[in-house]
Each structure stands twice: as C-alpha cells, then as structure tokens.
Amino acid sequence: MNIFFMVAVRIPTLVRTALVAALLVGAGLLAQTPQPTSTPTPVVPVAAQADCPVDPATPKRQFRGMWIASVANVDWPSRTGLTVADQKAEYRSWLDLAVRNRMNAVVVQIRPTADAFWPSSYEPWSHWLTGTQGRDPGYDPLAFMVAEAHARNLEFHAWFNPYRVANHADLSRLVSTHPARRNPSWVETYGGQLYYNPGIPAVRAFVQDAMMDAVSRYDIDGVHWDDYFYPYPVSGVSFPDQDTFAQYGAGFSNINDWRRNNVNLLVQEMGQKIHAAKSWVSFGISPFGIWRNASTDPLGSRTSGLQSYDAIYADTRRWVKQNWVDYIAPQIYWHIGHPAADYAELVRWWSQVTTGTNVQLVVGQATYRSGASGQDPAWQNAGELTSHFTLNRSHPQVVGDIHFSAKDVRANRIGAMARVVADHYSRPALLPVPLVRGGSAPGAPTLSSATRSSGGVTLTWQRPTTGTTTGYAVYRLPGDGPVDACALTDSRHLIATVRASGATGTWLDTTAAAGSTYRYLATALHRLHHESAPSAARTVPGDGSGTFSVIVDNATSGGFTASANWGTSTFLTTRHGTNYRFANPQSVSDVAWFSATIPASGTYRVEVWYPADPGYNSATPHLVATSTGNVTVTVDQRSGGGQWRTLGNYQLAAGTRQVVGVSRWTATTGYVVADAVRITRV
User: Which string of DSSP letters, residue by residue, matches 401-414?
Assistant: First the structure.
C-alpha cells in the first residue's frame, strides 16, 4: 500500500467482533457432576425484526479485519529463513491477536511480488518465505493459513498484488524460471522497481490466471487487491509504455484513457472469473483514498490531494458504479479535520458513491499512524482512531473497517487500538451479508443441551438438516422466561461464533457467572453469512450463589453527584424516573458520576438509560471506572433512548465508589444527558 501526504510526497507502507475461539470440552470436564439439566424455553416471535430497536453501539454485523503484510516481511513472516515451526507459530499468533481484538477477518498478502505463498505452477515460491526465490518452504503456507483462520472462524481474504514484479530493478536477480525472465518484453523498469506492463493483453491474462490458481484450489473467502495498479508517479518521469500504447491503443485518443481502460478491464474480468468459479468468494479492492478532487471534477471529493484517477489510472468510482467489486475499502489514512483530506469528508464522499450500488463500503484505517513518531498531532490523541468509528455510525453504507497493519494493531501505541476495541468491538459481530450473489439461510440448529459444571456452561447442538452451514452464532440472555426475538437484532447478547464441523457442535461458555441464570440460543450461518432462525432456548439455572444487579438513577440518594453546571429537566417522557440531568458540552473536566456498591470483584454489564432527542449530543462520553482504569464509551443520545443501552462488560473491583460517569468533554454539539445506569454481574 502507498500513503501520500498532501504535498504528493509518497511514503510507502507495505501493505470477526470478538470472535471467541471454539473451546473443546475434554472428557474430564464432562465427567464432572453437572448442575440441574437445562430446560427448553420458547422464543416469542415478532412481526418483523425491522420493528425491533437496534443499539447502534452494538451492531450485529460488521466487517472487522486487519491486513497481514508479507512484502518486505512487514508482518509475516517477521524475517526470511524462519523454520516451518516458527513461521506457523508466528502466523497463529497474528490470528490469536485478531480474535482477542474481536475481529472476524484477516487480509493476508500471498502474492506480494509476482510470486506465490502456495505451490503455484505459474510463479515461483516467494523469497519473503525462505530468503531465496523459488525455494520450497517445506509446507503449503496457503493451505495452512486458510485452515488456521477458519478454525478460529475468521474469514480469510487472499491479498494479491497484480503487477509488481520486484522491489528492485535487476531482472537477473529473479529466479531463472520466473515468468518475467522468460518474457522480458512484459516487464518495465520504473522508479527503481520492476513491473509487469498493464497495457499488454497477455500480461493481463497471465496475472489473472496466476491469481485464479489460488482461488480455484483453496477455500479462501475473498480476493483482495490494494492500491498498486500502474505505479505511483515519479516526478518528471513517465511510465515507459508509449510503444505499448502505439501497439494496443487503437480507439483511444490519449494514453491516459487507455491506461485507465487497461485497469478497468483487469478489475471487470477478474470479478467475472472469481464469481464464475466460486460465487461465494468476495472481490474487494482497497484503493488510494481520493478518486478526484472537486476542484478538478465536480463529482469528486472536497479534498486537495493526489488523485488516483489521474496519477495511477485507477477509476475507482467507476468500479463501484459498475458493480465490478463486492466491496471497496478506500485507504482513508487521514485524521478528522485534515485540511487537504478530511477523514469525515472522504467517508461522506465514499458513502455517497456506494449508495444505490451493490458494493459495500469498508474503510481502510491508518492504525499505523496512532501514536507513531512524526505523525500529525491529531494522531498523538488516543481518541482519534476511535472517533473515526463513531463517525462511521452516521453513515449506514459503512459496514466495517480494516486496520493497517497487524504489527500496529499489536503495538497498541498510546492505547488507541484498545480504545477502539472497548468503544466499538465490545461484543462479537457477524460479517455483513453481501448485497448480491444469492445464498439463503440454513435451517435452525437444535440446541440439545446446556450443562453447567465448574468450568462454565457447555452447549451442544445438532447441525441443521436443511441448507448449507459453515458456522454458528451463540447467544446468552440473562434470567429465565420466554425470549423476545428482538433480543437478537443486535449483538448485545451475542457471545461467540463457532466454525461448523461435523454433524454436531459444542462450545464452552467460560464467562458464565456461577450464580446467574441464563438462556442460551444458537443460530446457523451460511457461507455468505445469512443467519437461520434461532434454536429453542435452553435455560441454565444458577448454582444458588446469587446474582447482583443495581439501578442508580440521577435522583438516587447518595448515588449521583454533579456540579451546578448540570441542569434538571422533565421535558422528555422517555426519561428514567421523575427527571434527568443535562449540560452543555465543553472542554472541561466536569463529570456527572453514578456511584454504586460492587459486592465482589468480577465481570459486570454496564447499561445506561437516557431520553433521546435529535438536539442532544451525538457523541456523549461515558466513563466506566474499571479495575484497570477508566474506559470511555461514546453514546449517540440523539436516538435509541427510553431503554437500557449496553456500554459493555467490564471488570469492576469490589467496594463503594463512582462507577459510571457522563462527561461534558466532547467537540460535538447538543446537550449531554445523565439519567440512570444499571450494573449487573454476568
């Protein structure tokens, strides 16, 4: 991937929700004396789930991914020459990182420089694996990578670079069997690197065949390209394809339109080939974030940066409007308010472009900038990255994000990634259903048992007898009684997704509190993420140690404190209790606190109640005083009021103290409101 500052200086960057890994229960655990047998509980149907309120803070479907770059050993392998065991251990650690951060997809670079991370009959083994191009690494990395991702129920998107041949300019350094050595007329040298010439039809056909080899032979979920088509421009130097234009450019009055057509053909043809071979495989591209500036083209964005349409001949807007891709993931690698490329403006523009198409919008996030030396001051603010996700909520076209790159997710500089997880990945999420490509939900699974033991609650289910099932979603609701189907419309009660394997499935809920009664349900998922109706619920009683839940209203004696800056109102009837408190936003430390007595250290669900109004604040900061420090969660108080809204589950220490606060410190307009909180042990 490439990142441009707005002065057109190029900086090269080589570029499911909390998925809980399936925990198999050993015979020793099953042999323990179980608690009372679970009982089936009815699910109360609703006329249409569209009528159900949905908590925007806990969306049920989101694409949550990270790029794992192999070129120049950016992420994996960390260096060439690692043993097979070390390579496998490193890769597993990246997947485990994705799971810990509640992601549901990885985008892994498997063809970085006209080479392969699988035994390809088209191109040599990548030297980024062994240090020597063409050397067999001793195993099939792609088969291993896909299997390991699927074992964790992570989607695997195979990331290819179509035209880059080498990060150097010496053709003789390539292995003698390399297609570029055998066809030197296909290759051009530009900017100190080697590239296949996109204007040669034989080249376009060859690179498609090389990539389709992986599509046809491996169980990948997506094909992914980044922003390399024609190379980024070197000042004062033209890409040397004038002779190619003379040979193949009939019908085009200028070379630039011809170059764009060459890339358009690559995109259009590849999408057709992918879906003809495997209709369920997604095709996505992550282009440079700016198509064209409005000053150049009235259809462009209100920006003033490098234009991919003109600089690298990538007509990204057309790919979307023609529905040639399934998702577009523009690299919007700038902060909110950037003078030349405002993140907010580009999200608005891409949302507008994708509206009315069959293309889903996923945002490429510059996680690598957060807290990094030399970045703009905005990126030294731990709240910058999480504010991007909050802004995305106001654009329903945005169905998720991809983080660049894995090493930066792991680094978690200034706690920026932890903020994203706490604020936006607090619950698992299912992947979005594609806008086209068919598919239907399988039948409902049968949840045959839910048994409590000292290790938690073990669930067992049978695979549906109809439809194709590739995975399951597991839900847990507190208490007993009938289950309202509206409880499943967002992810508040989603606790795990599990890959399907065989006729039965099992999963261990290690987070089930011993004293709590729960209802469990399971659904089945199709390859394209269509979800079945839920199973009948199973109720698991608590073990008699008791439960804890407390509501603190702003009028609770001794439970609420606020300064004189906080007014009192009875204006909205959707309030909790007799009134609620409100204040104007301001950059001051003036928090309204709810206090409670926490009986024992443990995991607690924290919920808030407020009356919503279109004039209230879209990003009201809520502070949760966890056992390891304050966590901030922003809530859009313009909607979703008059009900309990979950902030998340947190580790709270025992004792009486301030637990939840509502802050005035927000840059958005509209009153911030403090009404009531509910704290429940889970």
Answer: EEES-HHHHHH-GG
Q: Per DSSP, what are the bridge partners of residue 34?
A: none
Tell me the two tokens of residue 353: 């472009």
Angle formed by the axes of helices 343-354 and 384-392, to 10°? 30
What is d(CA 549, CA 385) in angstroms, rounded to the nearest whole number?
Answer: 33
DSSP 8-state symbol, 576: S
Torsion angle (degrees, nearest 10) of CA 212, 217, 219, 220: -20
| Degrees to nearest 5, angle at CA 63 with 61 and 68 | 155
Superfamily in which the 63-425 domain is placed by CATH:
Glycosidases (3.20.20.80)
What CATH class has 550-681? mainly beta
357 close to 407: Cβ distance less than 8 angstroms: no
CA distances from 573 to 576, 612, 626, 678 (A): 8, 10, 32, 19
Do 550-681 and 439-547 have the same topology in CATH? no
Residue type, 276: A
Give the residue carrying structure tokens 């510059």: 366
Residues 6+ apart with CB under 8 A from 33: 453
DSSP single-letter state for residue 665: -
Contact 212, 273 (CB under 8 A): yes
DSSP string, 252-311: -SSHHHHHHHHHHHHHHHHHHHHHHH-TT-EEEE--BS-S-BTTT-TTSBS--S--HHHH
Residues of the chain with pLDDT under 70: 1-50, 544-547
Give CA–CA dist 649/10, Å, rounded.
42
pLDDT at 17: 27
Q: What is the pLDDT of residue 601?
A: 81
- % of the chain beyond a pLDDT of 90: 81
pLDDT at 516: 83
Judged by phi (left if over 0) then psi (alpha if -120 to 50, else beta), residue 678 lies in beta
Encoded amino acid at 562, one letter: A
d(CA 60, CA 31): 35
- 276-281's contacts with Cβ under 8 Å and 24+ in sequence apart are 277/212, 277/215, 277/216, 278/215, 278/216, 279/437, 279/438, 280/221, 280/437, 280/439, 280/527, 280/528, 281/215, 281/220, 281/221, 281/222, 281/223
Chain-centre distance of CA 231, in angstroms? 28
**Residue 656 in contact with residue 596, Cβ under 8 Å?**
yes
630, 621 Cβ separation under 8 angstroms: no
Helices (H), 514-576: none
Judge contact between 383 and 632, C-beta under 8 A. yes
Greatest CA separation for the chain: 84
Range list of H helices, 10-140: 27-30, 84-100, 127-130
**Start-to-end Cα distance in the chain:** 43
Fold category of 439-547 in CATH? Immunoglobulin-like (2.60.40)
Amino acid sitting at position 509: D
- The CA radius of gyration of the chain, in Å to the nearest whole number, is 27
As a whole number of angstroms, the distance between CA 338 and CA 294 comes to 16
CB contact set of 673 (below 8 Å; sequence gap of 6+): 580, 581, 582, 610, 611, 616, 617, 620, 637, 662
Q: Where are the domains of the chain?
A: 63-425, 439-547, 550-681
For the stretch 210-255, pLDDT in tens is 999 999 999 999 999 999 999 999 999 999 999 999 999 999 999 9
pTM value is: 0.78
